[in-house]
């Protein structure tokens, strides 16, 4: 019978061969947690959660920053068969309340900073709203990461019905078992980014877990000798599936570090990291800092990059300057995390998203005819496979729409991404159909194509195009980050010359330009066209 994520992870914690190995290391606090420690601590956390009569299938939500404290309730909930729901810790109060309602939370685990106003020395506004909105929902308060090992009662606990995690842990019996669940049962709910409307909760089932994690292990030839540097946020699947899950299964070590590009390579060298997972903006920021000698980076074998478009120029420059292989891939929360990647023995194609995993089928179709597009042509990416989800939580309408890309392809998941494929079978991401495209006088405009062209100007450091309203019509505009001094007219002239020569297409006319200090990122670290539209409108 197929094992659940909890059974596989706890199996590693109890593996005699891994007993004293470091499972987790916090590079800031220098705290090390071995595999046997993880077994004991997650069993204690499971006991704490069970004391609130959490049953298999109940939702336990986590509002926690990155840190060692995150892992215990996260994995403890899995041990007792609960459905864990990590909340985006960058959410506003309104978004937090929405997510808790959406996922039908039975219990919330959070930390001091969210429930206690340290300036006013009183319960936070969020805690008051939580109590008003969910008067019977238990709220467990953990210490903030920097106070993780403190023996003092958590600030905010005891107020308005909030409980102290550390106090309960002193009197709770360990739950040293794993509650078995079936393959079709969920182990996690992850909310989508909501770039096209209200977030939806993706139901990640036990059956999705091992196919995708195994694909990551095989594609990248991971072993117990590897050390993964984790800098992405743990509320998102990238950090979970690319770093912690595979490392724990094979007996490797996960290194927790802040997401600061200035110290990324320095931290990787100091702690002997062999790989990491980053987003393209991180590569760009790392290159702005001093690059250590290639010899010192020899242990950092590769980086897995996804979650946003990776420009070929940036891809090539980073590899040339650092000597580190950058293996691109693609995936979504709906595919657990990854659907494609670049294998260790495959050539790296700059700007690509690699090839589909063995467990997935990926097609690019014409949405009007339903036929597959020719090699090199852009179309809608659809996918099916063992790691693809089956439904959104209690949202049958959204689920039905997601699996109906065209009558010819019923049952295939509509990713909403526009892609193309070359003759080698390598895929390339072009744009997000719903978030990156708009119509100008009936013609589709793909924003990322304008962005790519604008960034080729020697005085432009970064750029993002946006749709705007001018004289009652939708037009295209451009937000520009300067590399050196340049005027708006010069950038407009560059874009106009490119448009007239067909790079980009002739209807991609830029009507207005503003200069900005940076291109804003969204909650998951991707560049946010939605935020840049707001900035343009307020300029």
From TrEMBL:
Annotated signal sequence range: none
Entries under InterPro entries matching the protein: AMP-binding_CS, AMP-dep_synth/lig_dom, ANL_N_sf
Protein name: AMP-dependent synthetase/ligase domain-containing protein
Classification via SUPFAM superfamilies: Acetyl-CoA synthetase-like
Domain AMP-dependent synthetase/ligase: start-end pairs: 18-393
Gene3D superfamilies named in the record: N-terminal domain of ligase-like
MF term (GO), any: CoA-ligase activity
Origin species: Candidatus Giovannonibacteria bacterium RIFCSPHIGHO2_01_FULL_45_23
């Amino acid at each position: 019978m197929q094992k659940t994520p909890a059974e596989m992870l706890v199996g590693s914690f109890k593996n005699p061969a891994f007993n004293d190995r470091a499972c987790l290391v916090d590079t800031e606090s220098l705290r090390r947690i071995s595999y046997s420690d993880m077994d004991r601590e997650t069993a204690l956390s499971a006991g704490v959660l069970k004391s609130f009569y959490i049953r298999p299938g109940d939702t336990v939500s986590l509002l926690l920053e990155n840190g060692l404290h995150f892992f215990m309730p996260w994995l403890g909930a899995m041990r007792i068969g609960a459905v864990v729901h990590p909340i985006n810790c960058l959410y506003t109060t309104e978004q937090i309340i929405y997510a808790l309602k959406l996922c039908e939370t039975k219990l919330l685990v959070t930390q001091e900073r969210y429930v206690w106003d340290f300036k006013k020395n009183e319960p936070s506004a969020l805690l008051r709203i939580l109590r008003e909105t969910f008067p019977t929902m238990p709220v467990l308060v953990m210490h903030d990461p920097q106070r993780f090992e403190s023996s003092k009662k958590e600030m905010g606990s005891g107020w308005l019905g909030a409980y102290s995690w550390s106090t309960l842990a002193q009197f709770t019996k360990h739950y040293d078992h794993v509650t078995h669940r079936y393959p079709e049962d969920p182990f996690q709910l992850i909310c989508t980014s909501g770039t096209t409307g209200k977030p939806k909760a993706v139901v990640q089932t036990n059956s999705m877990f091992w196919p995708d994690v195994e694909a990551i292990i095989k594609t990248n030839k991971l072993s117990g000798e590897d050390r993964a540097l984790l800098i992405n946020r743990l509320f998102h699947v990238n950090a979970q599936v690319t770093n912690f899950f595979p490392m724990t299964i094979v007996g490797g070590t996960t290194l927790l570090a802040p997401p600061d590009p200035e110290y990324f390579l320095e931290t990787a060298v100091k702690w002997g990291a062999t790989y990491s997972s980053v987003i393209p903006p991180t590569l760009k920021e790392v290159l702005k800092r001093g690059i250590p000698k290639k010899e010192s980076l020899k242990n950092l074998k590769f980086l897995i990059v996804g979650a946003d478009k990776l420009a070929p120029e940036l891809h090539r420059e980073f590899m040339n300057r650092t000597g580190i292989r950058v293996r691109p891939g693609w995936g979504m929360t709906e595919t657990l995390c990854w659907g494609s990647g670049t294998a260790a023995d495959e050539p790296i194609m700059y700007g690509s998203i690699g090839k589909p995993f063995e467990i997935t089928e990926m097609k690019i179709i014409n949405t009007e005819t339903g036929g597959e597009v020719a090699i090199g042509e852009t179309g809608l990416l659809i996918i099916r496979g063992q790691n693809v989800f089956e439904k959104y939580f209690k949202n049958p309408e959204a689920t039905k729409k997601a699996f109906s890309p065209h009558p010819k392809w019923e049952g295939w998941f509509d990713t909403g991404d526009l892609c193309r494929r070359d003759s080698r079978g390598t895929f390339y991401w072009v744009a997000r159909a719903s978030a990156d495209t708009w119509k100008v006088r009936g013609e589709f405009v793909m924003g990322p194509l304008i962005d790519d062209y604008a960034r080729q100007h020697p005085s432009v450091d970064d750029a993002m195009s946006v749709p705007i309203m001018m004289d009652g019509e939708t037009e295209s505009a451009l937000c520009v980050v300067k590399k050196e001094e340049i005027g708006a007219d010069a950038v407009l002239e560059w874009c106009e010359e490119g448009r007239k020569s067909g790079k980009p297409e002739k209807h991609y006319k830029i009507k207005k330009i503003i200069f900005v200090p940076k291109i804003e990122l969204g909650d998951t670290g991707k560049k946010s066209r939605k935020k840049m539209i707001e900035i343009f409108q307020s300029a």
